[in-house]
Specification:
Elements lengths: L3 H7 L2 E9 L13 E8 L30 E3 L5 E3 L7
Antiparallel strand pairs: 1-2, 3-4
């Protein structure tokens, strides 16, 4: 996960939002880690690759509750939002 200062220094982007999704981790004897939300605005036309661990299913262990599923989406210049497909579970 690139530091916001480095991301904005190296690329023509603005990090509009970056926060922990409180309560998104599963509950149980040991609560799982919460996920994050990151919104990046591109200032120029760019190609990018997302390296994320978004899965299409929820899992839990030892009787705990599963955490929330993450997602990746693209908000186009016209305001439309395209939800990207998740990785298929192994």
């Amino acid at each position: 996960m690139t530091d916001p200062e480095i991301l904005e220094f190296r690329y023509p982007v603005v990090l509009e939002d970056f926060h922990i999704r409180k309560g998104s981790g599963g509950k149980g004897k040991w609560n799982a880690g919460d996920g994050i939300r990151r919104t990046i605005r591109f200032l120029e036309k760019m190609d990018c690759t997302l390296l994320t661990a978004t899965a299409s299913c929820r899992r839990s262990m030892a009787g705990g509750d599963p955490g929330q599923v993450g997602e990746n989406s693209v908000r186009r210049k016209d305001g439309s939002i395209e939800k990207l497909k998740a990785a298929t579970p192994p």
